[in-house]
Amino acid sequence: MMQAGPWTGINETDLVKFFNGSRKLPSWKAKDFYRCLDILMDELKHEIQPEVKTTQERLDNLAAAARISAEQTELLAMRNHYLAALDEKDQDHPDFGKYKPRNWFHEDFYYSMRSKLQDIFYLIHMPNASKADFDRQTFDIAIDGYSKAAEQGKGCCALLNTVLLLAFHDYLNRRSSHTLQWLLIDTPLLGFDEGVHAISTSMRAGLFDALKEQAKDQQIIILENTDHIDELDFDSNVNLIRFTKNRHQGHYGYWNDVYDITETTPLR
Fold first, then answer.
1. Is 133 helix (H, G, I), strand (E, B) or coil?
2. What is the rounded CA–CA span in Å between residue 6 and residue 38?
């Protein structure tokens, strides 16, 4: 005989029959049974439901972690694939051959350079102007088959370098897709009075005539010592700036209001 709970007063044999359906639960016990059942369900709801929620959150987190792990594995596989492809690319050494920029010039380049060089030489009164050429091997000026360094002094070499630069600059302006609208030449008369073949005044004047002629359609900046050009006549198209390191005459230096701290000349 059961002594506690909703089954108090019912023996175990009858209880088994109630559960296997061979005997109907008496109505006098049904009310207590359902009341106890409601109490048990409330207890389950308050005690088990939070655990169910916590367990579900853990399952969701595990599922998210599994997705992230799968994505990481896929990204690592892609990374290894690309690294392997790059390694294979680095191991490839295609023979492109040595870059030869001279081969890219137009077929008339050497003729144009020779013609322009001779025109400038005539303008500056250069001896043997008709024998001037542009050598394909040295990519430089040759006079009567000789290189400029072999036959000319330091001053003439500086002048010839300037002439070469003018000729090349003229060619680029006429034939290149990217024209150069300005040109800077540093001391074209450097060492003009040195060596066996000194540069005459007429040659220096002719060089600056050539510079002025080419400067009609562009800007040409010349940096030169004043003692090399004092006797030359410059017209109004030439902007002559003298750097004197004197605060009261010409330009002191390249920068405005910047002076040598050791300068003792008093300000006016």
1. strand
2. 12
